[in-house]
């Protein structure tokens, strides 16, 4: 039998795409059916077949398993917040989301898409929320949500790909292969099955890529084993018979995997009866609902990441009474407020942070939209946040104060916001490895646990 080290190294990190699978794995299908997976448990139990079954079990988790070597270690009891990072892909228009309604220059440069003073939902220092963020405004007023404006990353290219890579690496240094969130997991020694999850489909973001294990899940309900309906009972019997008196590392790993699937199956399928309904038809809302299920299920979730696309609004960003931005604001407001209601008391140990790769230009373009810019606002929500405030120095909108392409200049590094959340809510003591070229400065937006 090969060594455990060789065996683990040979395990697939994801299932091949349907059209890449060897002949015979999808015979007789129309490219929409699930592949037929042989069930090694049905042929009797030998050590060789248990190893084959183990391989199939791990492979059946598909892209949900990213690192197989340590991914199945048991989670330790959490002593920190669950940090939920929501990436607004495409570069969101922070000047319409958190509008500087005290700036005359704002209305000169945005005669059509600027948020009118009378319509904006008032925040501190003369800023205002977009009028569709009514429920988030109530969370702001209740002290659960804070805003940091004029935030930027080290990237100045205004290229989506380069800006996202820089943001998710957590450093402007080229050649960094892992992400800042993965380095957080490494620093905390997190190795639980559900320590870190990218929810809602797609591959792991760069921020979670690295040596620490993390999962990419389409949704909670799909997390399981394909073709092994009764695997739990049979696996338990198999290990009881085959590994009795034998110290085999894979036995513990697979045992923890099966236990994790049992745990997922025990989670409530719907929010609590008193939870606010999530908006229907929203993939973002569904992903948030699944994150809430993992949090309330106490599975050891330390980090959750979610993506929300569609923010690259060069055209049809629209006025406050219509357009793509309004539609996004309605969805964002409803989904996040439902998430807060669903968590209930558990929000005391959860911090939500929004991120984007860059902001937009101050001046609207001829297509009632905006182009790539630099600085943007971040929203920070949670039970340990000093909400009801707008943090960070404001650079102003005069030409001399703007970024080189006529967009908002940055006055706060995004790692200052992340660093304070990590230091005060996630028990991170040193940032030397997490943000190797930046020492975060505290803004005073979070309460230490």
Proportion of beta-strand residues: 5-15%
Number of domains: 2
Radius of gyration: 24 Å
Low-confidence stretches: 1-77, 225-229
Q: What portion of residues is helical? A: 25-40%
How many runs of DSSP E, i.e. beta strands? 12
Indicate the mean pLDDT: 81
Order of helices and strands: HHEHEHEEHEHHEEHHHEHEEEEH
The N- to C-terminal Cα distance equals: 49 Å
Short description, anyone?
This protein is α/β, with parallel strands linked by helices.
Question: What layout of secondary structure does this protein have?
Answer:
Layout: H1 4-10, H2 47-60, E1 82-88, H3 94-97, E2 98-99, H4 104-109, E3 121-122, E4 128-129, H5 134-141, E5 145-152, H6 160-169, H7 180-188, E6 196-199, E7 215-217, H8 231-242, H9 249-266, H10 283-296, E8 303-308, H11 324-343, E9 350-356, E10 376-382, E11 390-391, E12 412-413, H12 414-425
Parallel strand pairs: 1-8, 1-9, 5-11, 5-12, 6-7, 6-8
Antiparallel strand pairs: 2-4, 3-4, 5-10, 9-10
Helix pairs in contact: 5-11, 8-9, 10-11
Protein described:
The protein is of the alpha/beta class. It folds into two domains: 99 residues, no CATH class; 293 residues, Alkaline Phosphatase, subunit A. The strands form two sheets. Strands 1, 5, 6, 7, 8, 9, 10, 11 and 12 form a nine-stranded mixed beta sheet that branches. Strands 2-4-3 form a three-stranded antiparallel beta sheet. Strand 3 and strand 4 form a beta hairpin. It is globular.
Features:
single chain; 449 residues; alpha/beta; Alkaline Phosphatase, subunit A; 12 helices; 30% helix; 12% strand; disordered N terminus
